[in-house]
């Protein structure tokens, strides 16, 4: 069996200590700009469209809360394919960052040669996002499960 380009992964595999969304000046979920598209009269460019599905490409900036994550792996982008802008989970934390768990997460490895030494990097795509622990079947991330077990003890 051949491995497909994208590899299905669980949220807890990628974010073992959970993750939060980082809002930007443009909002939490932003369109991915198609830099290959012609510039419009106002100088802007069209939103990127996925070649396989024809769906619009959206993105969020994620902060990985794993203390062992390297400098280049702490803030990363997760993309979505959707006809409309995806809605992030509500923020009940009281902080500017929104706790999140990704559903239908997949990873695509690639070589990042933007430095003195090439490295393997990952491009992430998700089908959806929910509050931590609210994923299908009640399966939360590892950190959510650990907190639940601590509360039960």
TrEMBL record:
It comes from the Bacteria. Residues 132-153 are annotated as: Disordered. This is Plasmid replication, integration and excision activator.
